[in-house]
Design brief:
Layout: H1 2-15, H2 22-32, H3 42-92, E1 109-110, E2 113-114, H4 115-130, H5 138-144, H6 165-173, E3 191-193, E4 216-217, E5 229-233, E6 241-245, E7 248-249, E8 259-262, E9 289-291, E10 306-308, E11 314-318, E12 356-357, H7 364-367
Antiparallel strand pairs: 1-2, 3-6, 4-7, 5-6, 8-11, 9-10, 11-12
Amino acid sequence: MGRKRSSEFGIRIAGYKGNQNPRFGLRNAHSAFRNPHSAFTLTELLVVITIIAILAALITAGAVNALNAAKRARISVEINQLAQSMEDFKVGKQYGIYPPNGMNDSSNSFLGNSIYQMTIKDFERAFKKAFPRHQEPLGLIQRLGGATGTLSNGNPSALDNGLNGAEAIYFWLGGFSDDPQYPISGPGGPSFISTSVDGEILESRNRIYEFDLARLGPRTDAGVFDGRFITYNDPKDPSIERQINLWTYNPSGSERPYVYFDASRHDPMEYCINMTGLATSPDQIYALTKLREGFSSTATPVAKDYVFVNKNKFQILHAGLDDAWGDMSPFAMTQSNLPLILFPEGPFTGDVADTLTNFTPGTLESAQE
């Protein structure tokens, strides 16, 4: 009996020391040999990576959208600034008119009269209204309006279809001379002596709008003017040849210029179907049209029922962030099979959708009904 107790006692001593609870000791032993947590499985890693990629894409997309919205806002602000300067041209400078542009093909006609004959008269009247004492060559003014053939008065060089919508912005807002007789040929005007060593000095213009001169174009890679121009005889000394470079103006980061359309003088039907903003460009840019106020939605419109958007004023457009004009619909006469896209119904889809204007707070797509 003594040995048995001793053996039991020995066993009991082996189970714990002192007054230690043997059950607690066994639990600690079990804990000491517990397996550590296993690492991420491949599936779990792929899930985590996918989630991170989705979040990164969402953040990137949000950043891109915000950046694009900021770019559109910047262009819209500049369009409105240019539009305000056009208002200043009429009122602030007391010229009393919105300036014209030759937005048509000289080969087209309306009611038997060549379209350019109409725009020539527009330019003649505009210069007489804005500069009533001017003595600039009549031939020069007619050429700006789209006159063809030989013009002896001033002997101006050819200018196909006249001053187009892209060229009109800088020509009119770049400023004119303070000389009431020679607003074009005088100091501060748009012309310069073509044989001058200094060439054209852009900083010398009496600008109505403060253009960022670095954004004027088109230019060669060397920064030299590479656009259309017109030459003519100096009205004070016909032996001197003067030149007008017809610059265009681009938003920052864009390859497309702003375009101006005069909507203050005529209705679309008077321009027939060719109202071009960039006459020599493969892109044909057209002023936007709509149905006249009060036209019944149940009636069938005829040519006289169409008017320009912003009638009696003007339109300033830009191609938008994609730098593509898309399918800009001309005014379609009844005999034309060309599609007629009206504002605000549209549909404004594809490249034309993000076009920005001075009569919409955002894109054409966002303004369409």
